[in-house]
Design brief:
This protein has 16 helices and no strands. Helix 2 runs antiparallel to helix 16 and helix 9 runs parallel beside helix 11. It is an all-alpha fold. The C terminus is likely disordered. The chain is globular, with a radius of gyration of 21 Å. 78% of the residues lie in helices and 0% in strands.
Amino acid sequence: MPRLLNHLLPLLQLTRMALVFTAVSNSMAGMLLLAKWTGVKGADPWNTLTLWNVAAIVLMSIGMYGFGMSLNDIIDRRRDSQISPGRPLPSGRISVMAAHLICALMAGLALAGAAAYGWGTQMRWPTLACAIITLLLISFYDIAGKYLVAPGLLSLGLIRFFHAVVAAPQVPLLWHPLLLLNHVVVLSMVCYKLEDKRPALTRAHWLAVMAGLVLVNGLCVGVLAWRRTPEGGSVVDSLWITPGLAYAGAAVVGFLVAAVLVLRKSDSARSAGQSLVLLGLLWLIVYDVAIVAGYVNLRAAALLALLLPLAYVAVQVMRWWSRLVAISQPPKYIRAR
């Protein structure tokens, strides 16, 4: 058993699987919304989901998340050797060749899961296309985007957008992936500033990011309204605007309150940024629950909410393990000259 853990835990660290529940939640919410949108009136969408479709979309999310995290560590391994020597690659607990293999397997799992889901829902090519776009966006961010500031911040939001759309290529409720996109971009921009990352975030970057958000939001709403609104029909109906959207609004207000409390409690800008990142990622599940509560039903929302404590516990376990590994590493002495 200890030998198995010695191999398993570095793998979980490399792929940062503690937060994979946020990706699974985004996909599950999209799948529930699609089931509600296309299902029989009065039926419970949760009961209409097949085990095949649920398993496929979960595997897709795991593969997509693991691919992005492992690729990031492969690219940053030299930088991590200086600032995060306890990470699996700098510490030697996972070899570079093994990391490349894991990264490729995760990408394959993502595509296989998307293909299986598309086959099970009769949406083969749209589902696979959204998965490929997501993988390309992840690759762009890890390879170049994170060094380009504004394009990188926008690509982070687009990754969440398209990942949620994989489960629902018809985009039954545009407000769900748009909420994820805007939350991730704004959160990343604020935390980028708080953590004082390089290159520095200038006023021009802020304006570029906000202009990009306005453009993406406007295009998505405009195109969907144009395609779905029949002659003489209602834009409100075509965009599925109902009182249930208020749940998402309440979740946004709740996050703003929680974020202010985190900022006040933190003793430095850097620690505030790190705490806010974790809160913001976990809050993605809150958004999914709020959307499902407003548009599907409370039972489905309650079941989806179970992913939140799972994600929190997983993060705490991985933090404990990282500290334990750091303590167990042999000390490095500096030889005096």
